[in-house]
Amino acid sequence: MRAHRFSPLLIVALLVAALAGLPVASVGLNLFVGGTSETWSHLSQTVLPEYIANSLWLCLGVGLGVGSLGVATAWLTAMHDFPGRRVFEWALVLPLAMPAYVMAYVYTDFLQFVGPVQSALREMTGWQAGEYWFPDIRTLPGAMLMFVCVLYPYVYLLARAAFLERASGMLEAARTLGMGPWRAFFAVSLPLARPAIVAGIALALMETLADYGTVAYFAVNTFTTGIYRAWFSLGDRVAAAQLAAMLLGFVLLLLMAERTSRGRARYNNTTGRNRPMAGATLSGLPALIAILACVLPLLLGFLLPAALLLKMAFTEGDAQFGERFLVLSRNSFLLAGLTAIIGVALALLMAYGARLSKSAITPLLNRLVGLGYAVPGAVIAVGVLIPVTRLDNWLAGQWLHWFGYNPGLMLTGGVAALIYAYLVRFLAVALHTVESSLAKITPNMDDAARSLGLGQGQTLRRVHVPMLRGSLLTAGLLVFVDVMKELPATLVMRPFNFDTLATQAYTLASDERLAEASTAALAIVAVGLLPLIALSRQISADRQG
Fold first, then answer.
1. Tens place of pLDDT for every residue, the chain, 545 residues?
2. 469 touches 519 (CB < 8 A)
3. In angstroms, rounded to a whole number, what is the distance separating the alpha carbons of residues 14 and 187?
4. Secondary structure of the chain: what % helix, strand, coil (to 5)?
5. Could you give phi then psi for residue 404, rounded to 5 degrees?
6. How far apart are CA 169 and CA 273, in angstroms?
7. Can you tell me the distance from the alpha carbon of 28 to that of 386, in angstroms, rounded to the nearest whole number?
8. Within the chain, which residue ranges are assigned CATH 1.10.3720.10?
């Protein structure tokens, strides 16, 4: 047994956990670094209150929006039957393929003064500039709307699963007690689904706090924009790290609030009924309201922006679509592919190590690594660059001493440090997928392999990997798509003259070349659809089963 505790897999888990925790530790240590009083005093007296206020307002608006929209659509599709419901079940997750910053570019072009909406309005009314009022999308409420439209599926997916798994038997009991549909929803279904709803809202808010492209383009000052400006405009890495530490504090408070909200309550279905109950059939006006409630978020969150992207890409698009686009695609696919391969390999080793270990250390290390997904990309970028840059300078000095010439920055000058940051951020996605699939394989398979003389490595290679092939591909695909969409860490850490589809879309949109940005943005959305198609098929299969 002791051999298992100190196996090479445990060493791998310890090393990965240490590397995953290094960026967060690096950011936290800068809270105690002196010598930046001038910069910090300037920030605290000018923009820091705005960063805090905007971040709080964003969390409040997005939390209320995704909670309301996600719960409503989940309740309608899970517990009711109406025309189009089977399509809405899977189609409502499609907005997850649309990054918020891409949505911001599309709607800005659509709603700006020279855009199609205002142009058509002036043609119909004969109004001229200054004679009418039209809402400006590039505001704090506009940013809230962008986040709500693309992030509500987090709540929808978790709440719908909770309604299907927990509410059926309890609802039947409530109806036998004379409760109507609305009273049963608020008294039974909603409390039972509360942990799932809160978890979905927490995921959406973490994505909101991690965003850079949307808030930067809409000129809404938050911690992520402040980190970027402190690093590149003020040239103060310590001030950037201190802002990153404050943002990390926001995220930790969010996680604590989610955990505290559950308290000691337990939400178990004790009726013994696990099959979903037959949905209440809606017709007439209630059916129309249900259809509109599902169509609206799908239209605003995916159908309309996707159609506008297609139109812009094929009618105007990027003038450098040819060779330049191929280079951008190659860079994006290289980063995403390498990160996915390494991430899946590490996740498999860590999950298998936790399966073999008789100690609580390995599962605890896996949970520590899993926290990386909650850390915003901007925080990870700053936390990686500070120690890795020092290591780079030390390696360059040693190289010069040993070989007589300076090789330059070997880690931060290439993609190694960037891939490291991606792994810290997204390894949790692969680890969760692999762990959940590995747990479904009975331990009897390990015992049988051992009785045939197979060691741990042979059992993993010849027994578990073939059985996990589908899950490993899914994990790799999820990491691949997340890296393709990641913007803050890529902007901060990419090597000189190394652009990706995400940075190209951001750069062109920042220069108000929105039509040209559509080509790269459309490619990101198309790649993001791949895992959602698989997820949609699974949703349909679950419902039929």
1. 444 445 677 787 788 888 888 887 877 776 666 555 577 777 777 888 899 899 999 999 999 999 999 999 998 888 888 898 888 988 898 898 889 999 999 999 898 888 888 888 888 888 887 778 888 899 999 999 999 999 999 899 888 877 876 555 566 565 665 565 666 666 666 777 777 888 888 888 888 988 888 999 999 999 888 888 887 777 777 777 778 888 878 777 877 776 676 555 554 554 444 455 556 787 888 889 999 999 999 999 999 999 998 888 888 766 656 678 888 888 999 999 999 999 988 888 888 777 777 677 777 777 777 777 777 888 888 888 888 888 888 887 888 778 777 777 777 777 888 999 999 888 888 888 887 777 777 777 767 777 777 776 677 777 777 877 777 887 888 888 889 888 888 888 888 888 898 998 888 888 888 888 888 888 888 888 877 777 666 666 655 55
2. no
3. 46
4. 80, 0, 20
5. 85, 5
6. 5
7. 12
8. 1-32+316-545, 44-102+138-268+283-312
What angle separates helix 361-370 from helix 8-29, to the nearest 10 degrees? 40
Q: What pTM was computed for the model?
A: 0.81
Phi, psi of 498 (to 5 degrees): -125, 105
Alpha-carbon distance of 341 to 380, in angstroms, equals: 20
Q: Which helix (H) or strand (E) holds 80?
A: strand 80-81
| Helix (H), strand (E) at residue 512 | none
Q: Which two tokens stand for residue 275?
A: 């099959």
- Structure tokens that stand for 77 in this block: 């599709």
| Number of other CB atoms surrounding residue 263 within 10 Å | 7
Which fold is adopted by the domain 44-102+138-268+283-312? Answer: MetI-like fold (1.10.3720)
Q: Which of 485, 480, 483, 478 is nearest to 436 (CA)?
A: 478
- The DSSP code for 494 is P
By C-alpha distance, which of 478, 362, 489, 475 is closest to 23? Answer: 489
Q: What is the CATH number of domain 1-32+316-545?
A: 1.10.3720.10
